[in-house]
């Protein structure tokens, strides 16, 4: 069982920056993919960014060039650096991890609120 704990959310003005952290309860060397999703009330959860075991990344078109996902394996932590934030980035952000094997298993954090408003 892997527990994921997000932190770093909050209120920021448009154009500002935040860095979200996702701390895992186990070594993330064992985790294949780590990702950030976000969800607005009444809408489906959407993928924001993913980082694969080898370090390659993918981003939603809406955040390309503004957000950067990274992982620090020795610290068992993944990050989402969010720059040039817009009001439409307001959402609850969730950390997600997948351990691939004969039976893939995935885990979710509890979410952290990000609000972009003046």
Description:
0% of the residues lie in helices and 51% in strands. It has no helices and eleven strands. It starts with a strand and ends with a strand. The model has no long low-confidence stretch (mean pLDDT 94).
What's the gist of this structure?
0% of the residues lie in helices and 51% in strands.
Structural class: mainly beta
Q: What series of H and E elements makes up the topology?
A: EEEEEEEEEEE
β-sheet strand percentage: over 45%
The overall strand count is 11
Q: Runs with pLDDT <50, length 5+?
A: none
Note the main sheet.
7 strands, mixed
The total of helices stands at 0
- Radius of gyration based on Cα positions: 14 Å
Net shape: globular
Distance between the termini: 40 Å
What oligomeric assembly is this protein in? single chain
- Helix content bin: under 10%
The overall pLDDT average reads 94
Characteristics:
single chain; 118 residues; mainly beta; seven-stranded mixed sheet; four-stranded antiparallel sheet; 0% helix; globular
Fold topology:
Blueprint: E1 4-7, E2 10-12, E3 18-24, E4 33-39, E5 46-51, E6 57-59, E7 67-72, E8 77-82, E9 91-99, E10 105-108, E11 112-116
Parallel strand pairs: 2-11
Antiparallel strand pairs: 1-3, 3-8, 4-5, 4-9, 5-6, 7-8, 9-10, 9-11
């Amino acid at each position: 069982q892997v527990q994921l704990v997000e932190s770093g959310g909050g209120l920021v003005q448009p154009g500002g920056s935040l860095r979200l952290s996702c701390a895992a309860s186990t070594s993330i060397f064992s985790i294949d993919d780590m990702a950030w999703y976000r969800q607005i009330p009444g809408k489906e959860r959407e993928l924001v960014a993913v980082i694969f075991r080898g370090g390659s990344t993918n981003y939603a078109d809406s955040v390309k060039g503004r957000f950067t996902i990274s992982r620090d394996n020795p610290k068992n932590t993944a990050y989402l650096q969010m720059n040039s934030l817009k009001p439409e980035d307001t959402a609850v952000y969730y950390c997600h991890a997948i351990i691939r094997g004969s039976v893939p298993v995935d885990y979710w954090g509890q979410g952290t609120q990000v609000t972009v408003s003046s």
